[in-house]
Amino acid sequence: MTRPLGVAVVGFGWMGHAHTRAYLRARHHYPDLPITPQLVAVADPEPGRAEAAAAQYGFAAATTDWRELLTDPRVEAVSVTAPNFLHREIGAAVAASGRHLWIEKPVGLTGDDARAVAAAATTAGVRSTVGFNYRAAPAVAEARALIAGGAVGRVTNARFRFFSDYAAHPDGALSWRFTRSHGGSGVLGDLASHAVDLARHLLGDIEALVADTTTVIPARPTVTGAASHFSRADGPPGPVENPDHVHALLRFAGGARGVLEASRVAVGEQNTYGFEVHGTTGALAWDFRRMGELSVSTGEDYQSQSYRTVFAAPGHGDFGAFQPGAGIAMSYDDTKVIEAVGFLRSIADGTPYGPALDDAVAAATVVDAMLDSARTGAWVSV
C-alpha cells in the first residue's frame, strides 16, 4: 500500500520542470516506494508561467504567489526552485509551515542563509533534501564505495572541476545570476557549491583552503523579464557584480590535498564536470558528460598502471532502478529522480537519504571561506 503526498513547486524555470518530471517518474522506477506524489499546486511570478506548467503537467492549481501554497491543506511537501535570493525566505517559510522541503542549492546567498533554512527545518521537524544531484550518479556512488573500501589506498590528492560556457558569450543576458543581491557569489554558489559537495561526499570534510576569484566579463547587456542561463540580450550594459571563475587549493581533514576550479565562462567547455582522485595505490576519474563511465586504476604496479573503464551497472548506486545492464546510458533527469525518491523515502520513514540541509550548510560555509580567502589572499580555516 502507498499513500498519496500532495506536492507543490515554487519557481518554474528549468529546475521546476526537472523537479516536476522527477515526481511524476518516481514510482515508474521505484514501484515499491511507499509514497505516491500528487501534483497539487505550482507558483511562479512570471505572468502565465504557472498556468502553462499546470496545463503541461497536471497541477491542480496555479498561482503567482508562493505564499498561497502554504495555506493549501493539500500541500504536504514543497520543491523550491526559485532564484537564489529567494531561497532563505521561501525555504524557511515552507519549513515553518510544517511542510517537507526539497530545495535547490545553494540554499540562499550565504552560509547564514543556509543555516537559517536548516534551523527552520530542525525546529519544525520536517524532512529536507538539497539539489546536489551529481552525487546521485551511479558511477559516483561506485567511486565513493571504492575509496571507502581502500581500492586506491590512502587518498593523497584530488581535483574537482566544474567548467561551463553558459556565460561565455559577452552578449549573455545580465540576469539575476550576475548581481550580488540576487545571485550572491556567482559561479561559487552556482557551480563551485556542486564541486564542494562532491569533494565532501567522496573525501570528507574540508578543513582549510586558499582561493582566488575573477570576473572575466565585467559588463553584460541588460534584459527585461525572465532569462535563462543561456539567454542573450541587447539592452544597455550593466555591471557583473560577482565572480565568473574560482580556483582553490584545499586541505581535507583526512590529510588529502585538493584543487577545485569552477567557471561559467570557459570557452570550449560544455558542462565539463567531474573529478580525479589519486591514492597511494590507485586512482579514479569521472566526467559528467560520460556519466555512466568510471575510469579506474587499481593494483600494485604503481608505475605504468593504466586506467580501465568501468561502466555503471546494476549494483552501482541506483543504476538498477533505470537500466538492466552495464553501459546503457542514464541522464541528468535520472539523477533528479534519484534525488526525489530519497526525499520521498525520508518523508515516509523519517530517515534522511541523500544530501540534506546540513550538506547545504557545509558547502555554503566552504564557499564563504573561498570568498574570504579571495579577499585577503590568505589560507582560511573552514
Q: Tally the beta strands.
A: 17
Q: Report the average pLDDT across residues.
A: 96
Number of domains: 2
Output the structural class: alpha/beta
Following the backbone from N to C, one meets helices and strands in this order, namely: EHEHEEHEHEHEHHEEEEEEEEEHHE
- The count of helical stretches stands at 9
CATH C-level label of the largest domain: Alpha Beta
Strand order of the largest sheet: 16-15-14-13-7-12-11-8-17
Oligomer description: single chain
Distance between the termini: 46 Å
CATH fold category name of the largest domain: Dihydrodipicolinate Reductase, domain 2
Give an overview in words:
It is a single chain. The protein has 382 residues and is of the alpha/beta class. The protein folds into 2 domains: 3-133, Rossmann fold, CATH 3.40.50.720; 135-330 and 355-381, Dihydrodipicolinate Reductase, domain 2 (2-Layer Sandwich). The protein is built from 9 helices and 17 strands. The strands form 3 sheets. The chain has a 9-stranded mixed beta sheet with strand order 16-15-14-13-7-12-11-8-17. Strands 3-2-1-4-5-6 form a 6-stranded parallel beta sheet, sandwiched between helices. It has a two-stranded antiparallel ribbon with strand order 9-10. Helix 3 runs parallel beside helix 4. The longest helix has 20 residues, at 357-376. The N and C termini lie far apart (46 Å). The model has no long low-confidence stretch (mean pLDDT 96). It comes from Actinoplanes xinjiangensis. One of its GO terms (molecular function) is nucleotide binding. Keywords: Oxidoreductase.
Question: What's this, in brief?
Answer:
With 382 residues, the protein is of the alpha/beta class.
